[in-house]
Every structure is written in C-alpha cells, then in structure tokens.
C-alpha cells in the first residue's frame, strides 16, 4: 500500500512541476491553482506513505519520480535536450532509487 501511495505522490509531483511551467511565474490562474493543489496533495501523500516506508527511501524515490518524470516531459513537451549525458543522468537517478529500495 505504501508504494502505491508513494507512486501517486510522485505522479502529483510531476503534475505540479508541469503546471508550474504553464503558470508562467504564477501569472496564469488555472495552472497556478493546479500547481498549489498538486504540491499540497503530493506532500500529503508522501506523508501518508511514510506510515509504511522508510523515510530515506520514500523521499528519494518520491524525488526521483518527480525528477525523472519532469525531465522526460521536458524532453517530450518542450523540446529539451536528449544528449547522452542527459539521458545517462536520468538513468543514474533511476538506478539510485532502485539501489535504495534494494538496500532497505
């Protein structure tokens, strides 16, 4: 159950970072509201997941879901770079999160 809650929290982290981009410095109302709501919901779900998961692992995985998801959407939606270094760095974030889960 903890992992499902954490997955939802990580997905909401991606939602708020994407909405933040569209909020254009909080000058657009709807994306700004989505940003704030998704931030709150993501943090709430992260907190709930901590009932079941170790703090360090949960926080790292939550951050990794957000970082990797946002980086991939940046590539797909905004044409951000896809150099080998960038893609390799994304892979390292995933590997680090898996390592923390295995070591738990």
From TrEMBL:
Transmembrane region(s): 29-47, 59-78, 84-103
InterPro entries membership: EmrE-like, Small_drug/metabolite_transptr, Small_multidrug_res
Domain of life of the source: Bacteria
Predominant location category: membrane
Organism for this UniProt entry: Oharaeibacter diazotrophicus
Bilayer topology term: Multi-pass membrane protein
GO biological-process terms attached to the record: xenobiotic detoxification by transmembrane export across the plasma membrane
GO MF annotations, alphabetized: transmembrane transporter activity
Similarity comment: Belongs to the drug/metabolite transporter (DMT) superfamily. Small multidrug resistance (SMR) (TC 2.A.7.1) family. Gdx/SugE subfamily.
Protein name per its UniProtKB record: Guanidinium exporter
Cell compartments where the protein resides: Cell membrane
Keywords: Cell membrane, Membrane, Transmembrane, Transmembrane helix, Transport
GO CC terms: plasma membrane
